[in-house]
Write a structure and sequence with these properties.
alpha/beta; 43% helix; 19% strand
C-alpha cells in the first residue's frame, strides 16, 4: 500500500490549515491519483504533525510513503527540516519506506494558475 503525505508549514490561522486538508481530500478523489491514502500534516503550529500522518498511514497498512512539501520554492523547510522530520517519524515505524519529493517549484501548470489568478 502506498501513501502520500502533504506537508505545509502550519499556521495559527485555522482557515490556512484547513486548506491543506481540502487539497488532500481533492487528491484522494482525483481520477489520476495512484495512492491508496492521501494525508495532510503540518510542520508546526497545528495538527496533525508529520509523525501523526506517518502513524495513520502505517496503522492503515502503508508500506511506502511519499512526503510532499507543499511549498512553492525549495528552501530550508523543504530541503532540510521536512526531510529530518520525516526521517525521525519513519524511524518509529519498522519496515516503512519513505521518500521526500521536491516542492512544487516551477511548472507550466503553476504558471497557468498564476496567470488565471491575476487576469481579473
Amino acid at each position: 500500500m502506498k501513501a502520500l503525505i502533504l506537508v505545509d508549514h502550519g499556521s495559527k490561522v485555522e482557515e490556512a490549515n484547513d486548506l491543506l486538508e481540502k487539497i488532500a481530500e481533492k487528491l484522494r478523489d482525483h481520477p489520476d491519483c495512484k495512492f491508496d491514502m492521501v494525508e495532510h500534516s503540518h510542520m508546526e503550529l497545528a495538527l496533525p504533525s508529520i509523525e501523526d500522518a506517518f502513524s495513520k498511514c502505517f496503522n492503515n497498512g502503508a508500506k511506502k510513503i511519499i512526503v510532499h512539501p507543499y511549498f512553492l520554492v525549495p528552501g530550508r523547510h523543504s530541503k532540510s527540516d521536512i526531510p529530518r522530520m520525516a526521517e525521525e517519524a519513519a524511524s518509529k515505524f519498522p519496515g516503512i519506506q519513505y521518500q521526500v519529493s521536491e516542492p512544487l517549484g516551477i511548472h507550466e501548470k503553476i504558471l497557468e494558475v498564476v496567470l488565471e489568478r491575476v487576469s481579473g
